[in-house]
């Protein structure tokens, strides 16, 4: 980690501490000594005593036990079972990829505190979920959410289904919300014809439908195009003749007809050049966002 990167991270730490305080607490009340102490601990953590060995295959990774326990309740339980009398504890992890686990540790332990990247996010996230490292999962959630926002509708239907399944599996809430928004603009057939779509939870599938429904309603309401909207009738009210729905005209569509009598006076309308009402926005254009065919 470079000095500039460390300085930026320190600023982020201060901002996070300030945000965690009650609203009525002023910045002057913040214990600056506590902030400085916390940042200093993080800066020095890379030099902490390595009193734990994690063995993967034939490679030994030396880490600080307290730092690992502070980030992972899973490792805390695992190490609690071992003898505390040993000068240096050692645990062996079977079936783990060495490079993936190193990336996970570098994103998790405060001594390095790296961010996930396109290359590492899908490798680190399963390990962060397995060992319940909340901060690392939050890094993955933020990264994948921002990437989804950048790509938007360019993400294919097949890919957005995979993204939703990943977000559900690891409880990445922001990433899931962004993926739901993208899926809601895809053609119905492009989603349901994919066998993987059935693996999405019923709750999330309902959210996709509701998101599309509400957004389409918003487009109609903002356009002022109310053609085809019918009057409501009382379903249980008896009637002798069939009740036919009558279409309502949109507001402003009623225009008085001007008639001129024999005397030359105009009745029922304004005289002079009255500009015709502006046509409503083109709904076809407004609704194109909901027919993403990719």
UniProtKB/TrEMBL annotation:
Pfam families (alphabetical): BTB
Protein name listed in UniProt: BTB domain-containing protein
Protein species of origin: Mytilus galloprovincialis
Region (Disordered), start-end ranges: 247-294
InterPro entries per the UniProt record, alphabetical: BTB/POZ_dom, SKP1/BTB/POZ_sf
SUPFAM superfamilies: POZ domain
BTB domain mapped to chain residues: 50-106
Listed PROSITE patterns: BTB (PS50097)
């Amino acid at each position: 980690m470079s000095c500039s990167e460390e300085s930026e991270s320190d600023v982020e730490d201060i901002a996070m501490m300030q945000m965690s305080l009650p609203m009525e607490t002023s910045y002057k009340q913040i214990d600056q000594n506590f902030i400085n102490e916390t940042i200093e601990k993080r800066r020095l953590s890379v030099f902490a005593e390595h009193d734990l060995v994690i063995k993967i295959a034939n490679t030994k990774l030396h880490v600080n036990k307290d730092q690992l326990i502070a980030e992972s309740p899973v490792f805390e339980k695992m190490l609690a079972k071992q003898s505390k009398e040993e000068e240096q504890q050692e645990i062996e992890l079977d079936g783990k990829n060495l490079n993936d686990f190193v990336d996970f540790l570098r994103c998790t332990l405060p001594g390095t505190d790296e961010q996930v990247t396109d290359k590492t996010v899908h490798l680190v996230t399963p390990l962060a979920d397995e060992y319940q490292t909340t901060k690392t999962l939050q890094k993955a959630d933020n990264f994948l959410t921002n990437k989804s926002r950048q790509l938007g509708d360019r993400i294919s239907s097949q890919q957005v289904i995979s993204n939703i399944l990943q977000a559900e599996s690891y409880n990445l809430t922001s990433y899931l919300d962004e993926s739901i928004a993208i899926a809601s603009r895809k053609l119905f057939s492009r989603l349901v014809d994919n066998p993987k779509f059935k693996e999405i939870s019923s709750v999330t599938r309902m959210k996709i439908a509701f998101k599309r429904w509400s957004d389409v309603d918003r487009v109609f309401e903002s356009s002022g195009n109310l053609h085809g909207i019918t009057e409501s009738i009382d379903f249980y009210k008896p009637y002798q003749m069939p009740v036919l729905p009558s279409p309502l005209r949109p507001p402003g569509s009623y225009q008085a007809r001007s008639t001129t009598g024999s005397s030359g006076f105009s009745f029922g309308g304004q005289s002079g050049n009255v500009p015709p009402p502006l046509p409503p926005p083109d709904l076809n254009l407004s609704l194109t966002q909901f027919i993403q065919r990719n």
